[in-house]
Write a structure and sequence with these properties.
mainly alpha, elongated
C-alpha cells in the first residue's frame, strides 16, 4: 500500500477514535453519576440517622429530602444516558440542564466541603456533554 494511503487511513482512524473517545467518556461519566445517585439512596435509606442523635455531617436537611432529590436526578440522568447512547441531540443538552439544576438544588442539602467535589464532577459532565452536542450538531 502506498505511504500516502496508509497515512490517510491511520489519520482518519485516529480522528474517529478520538471523537468516539469523547462520547465514551461522557457515557462513562453519566453511568458513574447514576450509580452514585443509587448508592446515595441506599446509604441514606439504610442509615438515615447517626446513632446517639448526632447530626449527620453530610446532610443539612432530613434524609428523605436527599433521597427524593437522588431518585429524581437518577431517573433524569438515566433519560439523558439513553438519549446520549442513541446520539440524540437532546441528550447532551438535557444532561447539561439537569446537571446545573441538580447542583443549584443540592447546594443547600449538603454541608461542608464535599460539595466542591460535586461541582467539579458537574463541570466535567457539562464539558463532555457540550463536546458531544457540538459533534452531533456538526454531523447533521
Amino acid at each position: 500500500m502506498p505511504q500516502g494511503i496508509s497515512s490517510f487511513y491511520s489519520t482518519n482512524l485516529i480522528n474517529f477514535t478520538m471523537r468516539d473517545l469523547q462520547h465514551k467518556i461522557l457515557l462513562i461519566l453519566v453511568a458513574i453519576t447514576i450509580i452514585a445517585e443509587v448508592a446515595s439512596i441506599i446509604l441514606w435509606v439504610v442509615n438515615p440517622t447517626i446513632p446517639l442523635g448526632k447530626a449527620r455531617i453530610t446532610l443539612a436537611v432530613d434524609f428523605r429530602i436527599a433521597v427524593a432529590n437522588a431518585v429524581v436526578f437518577a431517573a433524569l440522568n438515566l433519560m439523558a444516558f439513553l438519549w446520549i447512547v442513541r446520539r440524540n441531540k437532546i441528550g447532551p443538552l438535557f444532561l447539561i440542564a439537569i446537571s446545573i439544576i441538580n447542583r443549584v438544588i443540592s447546594h443547600p442539602i449538603f454541608i461542608g466541603g464535599a460539595h466542591i467535589v460535586f461541582i467539579t464532577w458537574t463541570v466535567l459532565l457539562v464539558i463532555f456533554a457540550y463536546l458531544d452536542y457540538r459533534k452531533i450538531s456538526k454531523q447533521e
